[in-house]
Structures
1.
Amino acid sequence: MLELALVRLIEIIGEAAGRVSQEGQNKHSSIPWFQIIGMRNRLIHGYDQVDLNLLWDTIEIDLPPLISKLENILDQE
């Protein structure tokens, strides 16, 4: 159940990133939009080949700084 929840979390983040306009992505180029959206696509279309170690590393290592960057962006706007 935890695995499914974590996969879904990353899918939602990727889906939301894909809805950010090109102008917004260009304005906030420190956010790795392409990689976020790409990971979502890999999870959606390659659900039978999910690398759980990579997923966990993404959540544990990459997600906290991403959240901080997004919070800073929201505070500025």
Note: Residues 31 and 67 are 10 Å apart (CA to CA).
2.
Amino acid sequence: MQKSMYSRYALWAAILFTVLIVSGCEQKSINEIKADPSRYANREVTVAGTVVRSFSVLGRGAYEIDDGTGKLWVVSETGVPREGAKIAVTGTIRDAYNLGSFIKLPEPVSSGLALIEKSHKAR
């Protein structure tokens, strides 16, 4: 009987852990991020959409992603996907004014928010 009780607690703990992990990786729309940038500043988020512009120099670069609700610049140190690619990208939201230590950004990225890429994958 006690073994059954411990099994039940272990099952509930596993379910709770799974829910917390999945909710922490929740995908956000670009409109949500831009509507309340202070809420997402310096936090890891995932957005998905289509690459509409990209710039790359020596494996580093920036690309703009459009999810249908808005556009957001993504800064990458591991290369950029081609224009037209459908991707999901995870990274940290930062104020673009503070990106000078990463790379020299294209003029359109010189103000506003940007996502510092941690990883991206094709969708």
Note: Residues 2-24 form the longest helix (23 residues).
3.
Amino acid sequence: MEAATFAELSAFGPLEAVHGNMDDDELRLLLPRRRVVEVGDARIGMTHDSGQASGRAERLVGWFEDCDAVVYGHTHQPEVTRRGDVWILNPGSPTERRRAPTHTMLLLDVAGRTISPELVDLA
């Protein structure tokens, strides 16, 4: 994404993001590689590239201690699983599904520290 596009999206309301491998240099300087956002009482870790599939859940939980969920991207493969008490979430992609069967996105309902994710199929 280009920094100008990010600025346009930010005009609609609060926007929390991390940079990814397809972002321009300006956006990579603006956004962190990893971040934690608080939604109500819940803590949600965010990163784009979670590394290789082997050991992914353990790695993500380790990167984001004390988080109730970790959201990652890069693979374009949707994931809604739990590792202990932590949700491991990948929204897939609403635009470039790659090897995923359909276009998807995630909705998160947050009440206190309870997170209820819903994978939305945009077929």
Note: The longest helix spans residues 3-10.
4.
Amino acid sequence: MNENEIANKIIGLAIQVHKALGPGLLESAYKECLFYMIKQADLSVEKEKAMPFVFEEVKLDCGYRIDLLVENKPVVEIKAVDTLNDVHLAQTLTYLKLANIKLGLLINFKVPLLKNGIKRVIN
């Protein structure tokens, strides 16, 4: 599967999670449920994947962690906030650059209709 096919699958699974849980939970609950659903869909997924930061040829552990990395292609950053803002987009772009990945999904579960909380981010 290519990045777009995987991303579409993830979006469908995220919609299922949102329909089951609604918009009022913590980010961690959505992350765990989506992680479970992705595994059930027979896709490889890593949760809280550490991303080292390189400065002057030294790898530093600065605490950068990708919420979900699916099939080593799309980065999935999960939020449960009133409004997505530029900081959330910048965070997702940083993860894409550090992982050298071109597609990310920024998903905000704190919305009445999940399709309004999904942003595709391209590096």
Note: The chain has one domain: 3-122.
